[in-house]
Structures are given as structure tokens and as C-alpha cells.
Amino acid sequence: MTDTSLASDIALSPSAAARVAAIAERQGKPAILRLSVEGGGCSGFQYRFGLADAAESDDTIAETDGVKLIVDSVSLDLVRGAEVDFIESLGGAAFRVTNPNAASGCGCGTSFAV
Hints:
The protein is α+β, with helices and mostly antiparallel strands. The protein has helices at 14-27, 73-79, and strands at 10-12, 32-40, 44-51, 60-64, 67-71, 82-89, 92-98, 104-105, 111-113.
């Protein structure tokens, strides 16, 4: 069963949740993925992913299959309505953000402009 809370703000796909759970288990950490947005990259903003130990008080939390995706309040303004997915293809495997706020992006999929 997929349980996604606050789906209108941010979402985590089942494939991304499974990948986070596997990585977290290997590293002995909680299954919590932090998505943040920083200035830089080839299009103006870039996505940053990392495992987190816990959510902060200003974080928005989405949960799918027991895995949490957390986003800070500043980053949320740039990714509201987005979904984080995990894609495996011949070109490699990576977390991918489908962001309705992005006016343009780059070929590598890790940066965007609004």
C-alpha cells in the first residue's frame, strides 16, 4: 500500500521509496530522504539529495511505503507539486525530480530554472 501524505506539496514514488529504504538499510540510517534546492548548476538551481537522521520543525514530510521525503520550507517553494522518482536506464540510475515549477532544465536533470 502506498501512503503519500501532503501529496499536493511533494511526493515520493514507490520506486524511489524502495531505493531510499535499500540505501538507508545498508548505511544503518533511518529511511528519510532530504531534498533541498541550492543555487547553482547549469540552469540556476540544483537539486540535492541526502539521507537525514530526522525532520526539522519547518520541513514538509511526504511518506510512501514507510519511507519519508522531507523538504525544508525555502526549497518547498521551488518544488511544490513535484514528485521524486528513481529511474534505472541504460544511461544509469538516478533520483529524478518531476517539477511543475521548472520553466526549463538541463540535460542531466539535476538543475532547473524557474
